[in-house]
Design brief:
The protein has about 350 residues and is mainly α. The chain is built from eleven helices and no strands. Helix 2 packs antiparallel against helix 10, helix 3 runs antiparallel to helix 4 and helix 8 crosses helix 10.
Length: about 350
Amino acid sequence: MDAGTTSLQQCNFNGHCLPPPRRSQQNKPPSYDINGLRYEHVQQAIVDSPAAPWMQDIESHVDEFSQHLLYGVAELCPRPSQAPKKPIFTTELWQLREKKLATKKALKEVYKRQRFELLQICFRALRPRADAPINGSLFWHYDTWLLCSRVRIYCKFHCLAIQLRGRLRRAKHDHLQNALTGLPATTPAATILHEVKNLIGPTNLKKVKAKTLPYVKNHQGQVCQSPAEALDTWISFFQTMEGGERIDEQQQRNEWLTNLRRFSASELNLQLHDLPSLTELEAAYRRVQVAKATGPDHIDATLCHVAPAILAKRTYAILLKTFLHGHECLLHKGGRPRPLWKRVLAAQGW
């Protein structure tokens, strides 16, 4: 497999492989089944990707590799649709849930139709009687039929909801009992909480109720009135602590391009043992923890952990460009601040 280092002895980065002006990209990254991801998926997604030439700039090199990997994995391991997110759902319970949702949708449709008929008769009543005569008895008969249908569908929906709630309660109790019974007495609390976490709380992110973050005070001692003000306060705090300077995105990119020209080496005097080995890069991929957060390149940590050998071969050229010439993609520098509050540290006075 070509790792893109065949022309290493001809490397000359004197401004010949600088990236072009960056265009704003708002494309949504492809989604894939992270739980069903296997080594074969990553291997098939990368095996047909062309090796980037050594003189290609670092930014397009990283972008092309990331896009080819993500879209290939999304095609080979797509995310399943309408699958239960909790292990307590059986086929019978899932069908009962779909029946309940269909009944709820039908109830909304009947209610919408009843409102439409009422608005129609009201607007028709505003017209002159000679243009559009109104049959009031026909409207009231139809409205009565819709009202009876609403009562019937609501009763059906209520019965299905009670039935589904009772079965889910029993299924959750049985699953939790079986999971905890099989654990030994020396099981740590973290493992028990991990088993319980799969059963509690809603799976719909819109219904997850997270506790609010503590108040953040600005330099004047007043509470921040907006998330943007709180974010600026944190940025100013770390800027003062690190002795940094706040710059905009375009200025950061210009300085990065300037550093690429300045760090590019015209000649190299290194031995083979001075270079990082492919085995060391593979070992670094193997040490990646699965639970780590995904970065701005949208490559999940599970991808690095599942297929470390083939990823190391494909990204070794990127490592050499960084090691020999200091060419690092701007996407991999820094990050984006997110408001976090670790309650354990807060309780200790941090």
